[in-house]
Design brief:
The protein has 188 residues and is an all-alpha fold. The chain has one domain: Actin-related protein 2/3 complex subunit 3 (Arp2/3 complex 21 kDa subunit ARPC3), CATH 1.10.1760.10. Helices cover 39% and strands 2% of the residues. The protein has five helices and two strands, in the order E-E-H-H-H-H-H. Strands 1-2 form a two-stranded antiparallel sheet. The longest helix has 26 residues. The radius of gyration is 16 Å and the shape is globular.
C-alpha cells in the first residue's frame, strides 16, 4: 500500500521558497500565508470536507498523519508533499511533548512552546531532510520561510490540541499511541 500524497499537488500559482510551498492557511495567526475564509459557524473543525474552500494543508496534515506515520519511505511527487512531510514530522515532535497525565492547559502550553521554539529550516545544518529540500535563495527568502513555518507550526499546535483533548477531556490515548513513531525514521 503506497503512502497518501497531498491533494494540493495540482494547485497552480503557489509561491515557492526553494522547493517548499507557501500554501494558503485558515488561520488567525499573523504571518505571510494567504488566509482562507473561516469555517461556517457550527462546522466541526475536526471533520472538514476536502472540497471546502476553507480546507487547508493543516487539515490535510492532521487527517493523513496517522496513515502516513507508518511509512519509512515516501516518494515526493511535488512541493505540497514537502509540506505534508514537514507537518507530519512536526506532529511527531508535538506528540513527544504531551504526556498521558497532562491536563489540557499544560498540554496546550507545551504544544505552543514547541511551535514557538527556535527551529531549523531547509538549508540549515540541523534540518533533518536537507537532501529533499532546497535551501532559500537569500536571507530575505529564509526569513519569509521561517515566518511561514512558524505560522504553520502554531496552527498545527492549536488544531492538534483540539484533537488530543476533545471536549477538554483527554489526552486521547489513540493519538498518544503515535508518540514513539518516527516518520521516515526522522524527527525535527
Amino acid at each position: 500500500m503506497p503512502a497518501y500524497h497531498s491533494i494540493f499537488l495540482d494547485d497552480q500559482g503557489v509561491a515557492l521558497i526553494g522547493n517548499f510551498p507557501l500554501l494558503p492557511l485558515r488561520t488567525r495567526t499573523r504571518g505571510p500565508a494567504y488566509t482562507l475564509p473561516p469555517l461556517p459557524s457550527g462546522a466541526d473543525e475536526t471533520d472538514i470536507d476536502p472540497n471546502s474552500e476553507s480546507y487547508d494543508c493543516v487539515d490535510e496534515i492532521l487527517s493523513l498523519f496517522r496513515a502516513n506515520a507508518f511509512f519509512r519511505n515516501f516518494e515526493i511527487k511535488g512541493p505540497a508533499d514537502r509540506m505534508l512531510i514537514y507537518g507530519i514530522l512536526f506532529i511527531s515532535e508535538c506528540l513527544s511533548k504531551v504526556k498521558p497525565g497532562m491536563s489540557s492547559r499544560e498540554a496546550e502550553k507545551a504544544l505552543i512552546n514547541t511551535a514557538l521554539d527556535h527551529f531549523a529550516i531547509p538549508g540549515d545544518v540541523s534540518f533533518p531532510l536537507n537532501q529533499a529540500f532546497e535551501p532559500p535563495r537569500d536571507r530575505q527568502d529564509a526569513e519569509t520561510l521561517r515566518q511561514y513555518l512558524s505560522q504553520v507550526r502554531q496552527e498545527i499546535a492549536i488544531r492538534l490540541h483540539a484533537r488530543l483533548y476533545p471536549g477538554g477531556v483527554g489526552p486521547s490515548k489513540w493519538w498518544l499511541s503515535f508518540t514513539r513513531r518516527k516518520f521516515m525514521g526522522k524527527s525535527l
